[in-house]
Amino acid sequence: MIREKDFVEELGLTRVYDAKQKYLPIGVSNSNRPGLQLADYWDFFAYERPQLLGLVEMTFLSSLDESTRRARLTKLFNYKLPCIVICRGIPCFDEMLILAAAHKIPIYSTPKETTKFELEMIRYLNNVLAPHETRHGVLVNVFGTGMLITGNSGVGKSEAALELVKRGHQLVADDVVKIRRINDNRLEGESPERVRHFMEIRGVGIINVANIYGAGAVQRRKTIDMQVHLEMWQDGKEYDRLGLTENYTEILGVKIPSLLLPIHPGRNLAVVLEVAARNLRQKQMGYNAAIELAKRSAEIAQRDMAEDDDFNEENE
Q1: Which is the catalytic residue, given 116, 136, 295, 303?
Q2: For residue 91, with 0-12 CB atoms within 10 Å meaning exposed, 13-18 middle and 19 or more buried, which class applies?
Q3: Of all residues in the chain, what percent carry a pLDDT higher than 70?
Q4: Contact 59, 79 (CB under 8 A)
Q5: How open is the CA angle 168-165-195, to the nearest 5 degrees?
Q6: Active site (annotated) includes residue 229
Q7: Using an 8 Å Cβ cutoff, are 222 and 172 in contact?
Q8: Share of the chain above pLDDT 90, in %
Q9: 0.85 exceeded by the pTM?
Q10: Is 157 known to be catalytic?
Q11: Terminal CA-CA length for the chain
């Protein structure tokens, strides 16, 4: 289901016939151009999709005699269509307005070309209908990397994000992150509208990051490229020191790189997070410093062994 108001406003539509619906019964992120149906072929009719009428369809309807056009449109409107969008600003037929009123099917108009509008609508529906969930955490854009910072309440997520903003990075969401799966391997996060750009700093209260640091300090939405989980340092617990093991976390069926970052007093967390973002970018480009160090250590060890063998042979 799609909110009718959002559908109209986001796509810049004009209501030709307003069915007074709060929601549109749209459940798929695709559309249909009913050219074959208007030519009286009704097999495999994707009536559950928004129906787009462009120059071809409207010109074809104009070429039909009045009784034939009325019969084809009557059959079209007998299906439970979510809506009809007429492109290129082409005027609507009177028969369509009568049938729309009878069946409570909204009709919209757009001045855009059919193909251009279709792409915009599919992109919009993909975003709105994508699988989604809400997580507790902070999302920041660090050097172009979408970093989801998680951890228990009070561990310092918001303070770390604020320091990153101060260093020139962008806040996307604080405390509550709305996550959508855009495709099979891509996640996108944003803040709920009512708390967008706001941040809670313990001891200070609620601040508006955009007002304090400017519009460049915030971002509406960002792909989530990695997760960093913060926890207080635990004595005796083994933490990864080399980074040879790649860890992942799964969100909505998508695996993303994950780091466990221990926190203790005096650690410059913002700098560590910046390094984590740059290191991920290097790994994505094919360079892994931990693997490089392991290779170099192995080469030196092999060379030392060879030198020892040569030395032993000379002294025999």
Answers
A1: 136
A2: exposed
A3: 95
A4: no
A5: 140
A6: no
A7: yes
A8: 70
A9: no
A10: yes
A11: 85
